[in-house]
DNA sequence: CGCGTTATTGAGCCCGTTCAACTATTGTGG
DNA sequence: CCACAATAGTTGAACGGGCTCAATAACGCG
């Protein structure tokens, strides 16, 4: 699991977005450095894809029928990112702290969760501070809302770094917007296999 | 001037981004409707570009030398949008109300302003409520901060819908991050002329 | 001018922050 | 394995920034 981060002059940090294992990070143009960096919350393997490479691949295989496939997939990936950012803008701009945390837990459940009957169990690979920096809050607030959710039995916290949601629909009903369900893994894997062999790969590990 | 907007079930609104006249709105995929809509704050002409059209254009003119031009430009446009969203995420997540408003005024100065010597004069085509919904605040807060900036002589408000900044650098020094300077109009116009004749155009007017 | 809309200003409140103390967990060396 | 330290998380008290509600003022338009 990785985070795209931005820092302010006085040390404040904002996490722009989170990516689950198997996901595609995008928006890092090699040219102008926007001051953003990537942090990994667990051991991670990164593959870097130059847009040029994809474009060349596209040009080489320019059969009128399927020549657009790579480009179309790339657009779809970027579009997903745009959608994620959009919904996170709403989260930061218009949701209160409880709504933010609730949405976060449900989103993690969708992206990382293991279904156990109706419930969902999630192993959380990040600290309270990381969550806070993602949601525009601080660690104490995260902690307080977690205990509130625990007391109301909407969420269980078996350990410090895991939780489970007995009735996801009931939690979702507390939100003023549907939980965004974005891309399925199938699409992603199709895309990745299309690019197989066209990415320069290397390892990156943190901690 | 247009705004991309999203609404919550209880009426809250968040403006995701603003586009100046001559700019390129993007991220509206025709397929799944994400619940977003576009509002125009002044008389506006919209041109709709189907990605398919651009892709076809690309395929038709697939001379190995310049065939990538359209696609590359499209990527650059989407990337600009991604950068804008990124910096706005930081704004909503980690800046306090004064910083948000200051950044907003400087951004408008860059994108809409008429330089007058060292100063910049800006005609603002949106209401306090629109500004509030863009910055994740409410109208009263916007108003209060405007009067505070006026009293400190950092900003002048000759009329309800215009302002001018005597010393932009001094204002900028109050921010914990550089004001993002994104795309120049030259690039945009180059791109638009590339697409000339390939966009289905229609008029859209509000109010 | 008179009316409706938009903006400003004030008083009071509440949510989320800050600061501090405490608890629980993880890791390390003896 | 335990002792201990370092880190991460929780909880409480008090503060304050931004919100809510209400009244007033300024503008735009017939």
TrEMBL record, chains A, B:
Tell me any Pfam family this protein matches. Answer: HTH_Crp_2
Q: Which domain of life is it from?
A: Bacteria
Q: Which positions fall inside the HTH crp-type domain?
A: 95-169
Gene Ontology MF: a single term = DNA-binding transcription factor activity
**What name appears for this protein in its UniProt entry?**
Helix-turn-helix domain-containing protein
Q: What phylogenetic lineage does the species belong to?
A: Bacteria, Pseudomonadati, Pseudomonadota, Alphaproteobacteria, Hyphomicrobiales
């Amino acid at each position: 699991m990785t985070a795209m981060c931005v820092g302010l002059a006085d040390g404040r940090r904002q996490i722009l977005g989170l990516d689950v294992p198997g996901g595609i990070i995008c928006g890092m143009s090699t040219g102008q450095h926007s001051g953003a960096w990537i942090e990994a919350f667990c051991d991670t393997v990164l593959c870097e894809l130059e847009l040029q490479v994809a474009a060349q691949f596209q040009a080489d295989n320019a059969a009128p029928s399927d020549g657009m496939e790579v480009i179309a997939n790339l657009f779809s990936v970027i579009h997903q990112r745009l959608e994620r950012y959009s919904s996170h803008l709403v989260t930061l701009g218009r949701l209160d702290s409880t709504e933010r945390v609730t949405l976060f837990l449900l989103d993690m459940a969708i992206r990382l969760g293991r279904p156990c009957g109706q419930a969902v169990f999630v192993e959380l690979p990040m600290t309270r501070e990381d969550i806070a920096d993602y949601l525009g809050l601080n660690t104490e607030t995260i902690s307080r809302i977690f205990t509130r959710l625990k007391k109301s039995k909407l969420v269980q916290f078996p350990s410090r770094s895991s939780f489970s949601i007995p009735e996801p629909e009931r939690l979702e009903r507390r939100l003023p917007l549907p939980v965004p369900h974005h891309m399925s893994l199938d699409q992603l894997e199709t895309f990745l296999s299309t690019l197989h062999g066209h990415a320069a790969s290397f390892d990156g590990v943190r901690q």
